[in-house]
């Protein structure tokens, strides 16, 4: 099928003998069957399943009373809280589609996302009320989750005496569940639309694979607007377990909370694992209750994985995937200690292939773009059929695969190795240079805590690699000496042109290094130079 003829929606791989049960039905079942069991712990607040069920139904009834129609979007702008979870679930129960907005984004970007979503309802917390004011525009319904002021109605006042009887909504697999706006690490975020089929399948897979049943206690320390969080939070709720919310991550607070709550599961990003393990008294905390720990969003270094295996009880599952779905691998680190440099094997029935720049499939061992197909794939980019078509590669069999934009290769045992983002590959003097290779050299120095390499303009080579390094606490590093040390370990065509020391690297709230911010000053300088010459 030619790309121009491709549909704007994506058909995922089928699941034989599938039983579809939407999330609101699961919430009501758990509320009826285990009303006293804790569903959410949020600081000193505990919300039992029976109470959560009533809260969700009240939110759904209020939304319906305010004019929400099936498929309407509801936007949320808040830190993690029990009310934000209830809003998410209540929106679904009313037949709406949730759009959790990334609180780390600028008001300008948030305004674009809100407009893109088409939401007629905006819920915000007091902490993000100023941004909410700036972007609300013509949104007719504005609710303060923990405040009331001016055009904002307080949540409790808005719910008022609303009957707990929710609207009768027949949700189908194709109905919209949520719109997740990507972190925008490489470009303006797109709205990734998931339907109820996507979430139902993903929940079932993770409940079964990770043991997220009714006795699970999952500690959440990443923001709810990120799919990284949702792939742990939603299955825990689908399985009838308990979610423990951490509003803002700090390493010591996390360990204290994990010990006190006897956490069994967690999802963290690599930088959080690194900060936890770096605490001098990490080993003094009782983490014996953990059954499984998960990581995703960015590569987790083999040295960190080894430290987790040695010092933190329970399985360690390092995942690689996309919010768009399709691509998904998992490395069970303890089971494959000789494969810690990889991101594991395809998971959940995913079909992952490697293609070249012409879209031809490559054999094992060769490097190319990673594409994937599975039973969990986005419906498409919201309101952007052209972008959806561009995100798809069609196999010779005519099946849709989602393009990752990542470069990788399979080894002979079927383990996938990531090399770089295709956009981050550096073309210098006709040679392809993978920034990740250079970063690994820098990270092998015993005084380096973090490293990033980006392409910057070069009049001689077109592009050249520039390194950024964060030294370990208490270590003094000379940039020139470190540059010479690294280049002495790199091939002549791969050497760094320069190296800058930083106190920290710019990161999104889920730990991804924002390379665009590192590149920006150099690209701007190139633009000004071109304008001067013109």
What structural class do the secondary elements suggest?
Answer: alpha/beta
CATH class of the domain at 48-171: Alpha Beta
Largest sheet data: 9 strands, mixed
* Percentage of residues in strands: 15-25%
CATH architecture of the domain at 48-171: 3-Layer(aba) Sandwich
Tally of individual helices: 15
Estimated radius of gyration: 24 Å
Which percent bin holds the helix content? Answer: 25-40%
The global form is globular
State the total count of DSSP E strands.
27
On the 0 to 100 scale, the average pLDDT is: 91
Q: Give the N-to-C terminal Cα separation.
A: 44 Å
Report the uncertain regions: 1-7, 528-534
Order of strands, main sheet, comes to 2-1-11-10-12-13-14-15-16
Please, could you describe this protein's structure?
It is a single chain. This protein is of the alpha/beta class. Among the domains are: 48-171, Rossmann fold, CATH 3.40.50.980; 425-533, ANL, C-terminal domain (GMP Synthetase, Chain A, domain 3), CATH 3.30.300.30. 31% of the residues lie in helices and 25% in strands. The protein contains 15 helices and 27 strands. The strands form six sheets. A nine-stranded mixed beta sheet has the order 2-1-11-10-12-13-14-15-16, with helices on both faces. The chain has a five-stranded parallel beta sheet with strand order 4-3-5-6-7, sandwiched between helices. α1 (23-33) crosses α3 (82-93) and α4 (107-117) crosses α5 (129-136). The chain starts with 22 loop residues before the first helix and ends with a helix. 48% of the residues are buried. Mean pLDDT is 91; it is low at 1-7 and 528-534.
